[in-house]
Amino acid sequence: MPRGRSDGLQQKHTVAFLFFVAFFLGFLYVYGGSIFGSQNSGSSALEYGRSLKRLGSSYLGAEDDNDGNRDESSASFKQGEGEANIFSKSFPVCDDRHSELIPCLDRHLIYQMRMKLDLSVMEHYERHCPPAERRYNCLIPPPSGYKVPIKWPQSRDEVWKANIPHTHLAHEKSDQNWMVEKGDKIMFPGGGTHFHYGADKYIASIANMLNFSNNNLNNEGRLRTVLDVGCGVASFGGYLLSSDIIAMSLAPNDVHQNQIQFALERGIPAYLGILGTKRLPYPSRSFELVHCSRCRIDWLQRDGILLLELDRLLRPGGYFAYSSPEAYAQDEENLKIWKEMSELVERMCWKIAAKRNQTVVWQKHGTNDCYMERGPDAHPPLCQSDDDPDAVWGVNMEACITRYSEHDNRAEGSGLAAWPARLTTPPPRLSDFGYSNEMFEKDTELWQRRVAKYWDLLSPKIASNTLRNIMDMKAYMGSFAAALIDKNVWVMNVVPHDGVNTLKLIYDRGLIGSTHDWCEAFSTYPRTYDLLHAWSIFSDVEKRGCSLEDLLIEMDRVLRPTGFVIIRDKQAVIDFVKKYLSALHWEAIDSVQDGDEVVFIIQKKLWLTSESFRDTE
Fold first, then answer.
1. I need a surface site. Which of 49, 93, 157, 560 has the fewest CB within 10 A?
2. pLDDT of residue 412
3. Is the model more confident about 4 or about 523?
4. Looking at the structure, do residues 401 and 542 belong to the same domain, yes or no?
5. CA angle (110, 132, 46) in 5-degree steps
6. Do 475 and 493 form a contact (C-beta atoms < 8 A)?
7. Choice between 92 and 411, residue whose per-residue pLDDT is larger
8. Is the pLDDT of residue 72 over 90?
9. Is residue 96 part of a domain?
10. 8 Å CB contact between 248 and 229
């Protein structure tokens, strides 16, 4: 019948339409997370997102990880959220060209936002963080052929070339033994611009100049913390470690491609920074020695403001070791610089402790006496009495001399114990916070117990050499790091800038660290830390109204593939983080209650983008 034929045709059309709708909805379900989930994250995440894939039993990503669109309304946690409310999130993957993105040290951002910066004072190498609407809401992919890093101590001398595919320095500095390209590895012979024949010999020569026993620069434990300015690939700091000296190796993200990334890949403590216009993120009187070897810094600029920043950072009686043509060259220009520099440091109350060949070592005066003996119009002037020498985050440098505290002036020194007793001896600056020796000792004991428990939880997953670079995101007095002293690791102790500024206590224990604002990205390359310890950081960041998703993405950026995160926080935080495990390609390892807090152990999976994977086939 005509009607019957018409109904049958309509039914067929209806079935076909329903099949098409089902197919379309299925497509959105599978791919919607990676496409639509990035609409609020800026054009880069949307345009350059990448799919992931799995090969056999080797994890290279997850087909089922992106099973939900991003829900901005859930980017906070509330008391009482539990397992029943946990559901998956998704993040796109950044384009491969962003595999080395450092959000707050991104020169492309400077150009795009047309920032007016003074290049003569290195403002373009200082931190400039993107506004919220320009932040990358995507996961940073590893480079093509990425491998799990070589373990310490072997890593001091060699790294995988695929992990940092930059050989420019190997060719430019080949005559100075910075680094050498060899097959699929980059080798580090231990040389530098000034010490072609090895950092170890150079370090011993400085110790010999200062008449330290056995040519050991640690001076029987009295010299422990060092700042190496313009450190290159940090071989100087790497070779100090065997002498129980820990150096903060500092260099900018400049024309010397990826020097700090190489340092951290080697397992050597390092930080991206520049002597520009802002104070370095370290408290006053933190270092026994500052070192500069051919660091190409104009120390005379702006009334000596950069040397005065080093003066702020040096302990009473601390040393500045300077190896540069100005110290030995006899041409007219270098002689003029040497004369002016010598006059400046003399007015700063520094004296020459030793001078030999191409190196000079100045020593800072140990009390305020020399400052008081200068005339009233002396330059550089003393800093104002209300200046806080430990206020550093975003604070401009000043061309003035930081005087000693009453305690240091009376003690004619820092009053610190020699290393290793320094680690557990209550430091004199405890009194600056009203803390007692008993509080310090209890905190040390508490974190010894906590860290022992952490290692029990991690033990099924780690060997003695699995971890090397560790970051404590809220270090307080550094007791977490102190509890790890017998492990073959080093710890970047981070003290949030909006909390109690206890970083000077950490340095007084013979440890190192930095001030930071966790509403912003950290000054390091991607994939540079093996373990992140986050004690109440999520709770703190949420109270400030900052994005918790941004914090998770930043932690993922900093964390090496196969690395670990330890979160110690309230249950609501743990439940919140669990929503993102699949999207971040993180795996829950263990979770235990500890008093009012929960300890949550996570491991980051190793994944590659489909483009990177094709390059390895």
1. 157
2. 74
3. 523
4. no
5. 85
6. yes
7. 92
8. no
9. no
10. no
Residues 404, 430, single domain; the answer is no
Classify residue 37 by its DSSP letter. G
For the entire predicted model, the pTM comes to 0.87
Name the 3-class secondary structure at 341.
Answer: helix
Q: How far from the centroid of its chain's Cα atoms is residue 151's Cα?
A: 19
Beta bridge partners of 300: none
Name the residue among 446, 447, 403, 410 with its Cα closest to residue 428.
410
In the prediction, which pLDDT does 407 show?
Answer: 75
Q: What is the CA radius of gyration of the chain?
A: 27
pLDDT at 352: 97
Residue 596 to residue 535: CA distance in whole angstroms: 13
CA-wise closest residue to 314 among 361, 271, 374, 267: 361
Question: Which residues sit opposite 131 in a β-bridge?
Answer: none
pLDDT at 336 over 50: yes
> Which tokens belong to 179?
């680094």
The range of the structural domain enclosing residue 395 comes to 196-416
CATH of the domain at 221: 3.40.50.150
Number of domains in the chain: 2
Q: Dmax over Cα atoms in the chain, in whole Å? A: 117
Question: What is the number of other CB atoms lying within 10 angstroms of the CB of residue 82?
Answer: 9
Q: Where are the beta strands (DSSP E) in 342-388?
A: 350-356, 359-364
Q: Are 59 and 606 in contact (CB under 8 A)?
A: yes
In the predicted structure, residue 511 carries a pLDDT above the cut 90: yes
Whether residue 288 contacts residue 256, with contact meaning beta carbons closer than 8 Å, is answered with no
For 96, residues 6+ apart whose C-beta sits below 8 A from its C-beta are 48, 50, 141, 143, 144, 609, 611, 612
Is the backbone peptide bond immediately before 252 cis, with ω within 30 degrees of 0?
A: no
Calpha distance 256→162 (Å, rounded): 18
Asked if residue 392 and residue 327 are part of one domain, the reply reads: yes
- AA letter at 454: Y
Residues of the chain above pLDDT 70, percent: 81
Q: Residue 53: which pLDDT band, with cuts at 50, 70 and 90?
A: very low
- Rounded to whole angstroms, the Cα distance separating 306 from 84 reads 56
Beta strands of 36-87 (E only): which ranges? none
Q: Are strands 180-182 and 158-160 parallel, antiparallel or unpaired?
A: unpaired
Instruction: Classify 486 as helix, strand or coil.
Output: coil
* 60 has a pLDDT exceeding 60: no
Q: Which of 530, 519, 587 is nearest to 553 (CA)?
A: 519
Q: Are 170 and 160 a contacting pair, CB within 8 Å?
A: no
User: In this structure, what DSSP letter does residue 609 have?
Assistant: B
Residue 56 has pLDDT above 70, yes or no: no
Say if residue 351 is in the same domain as residue 491.
no
Q: What is the predicted pLDDT for the residue at 180?
A: 87
Mean pLDDT on 322-347: 92
Whole-number Å distance between alpha carbons of 208 and 214? 8
Return the H-helix or E-strand segment holding 496: strand 490-496
Helix residue spans in 512-589 (DSSP H): 537-543, 548-558, 571-578, 581-584
Given this model, what pLDDT does residue 409 score?
Answer: 77
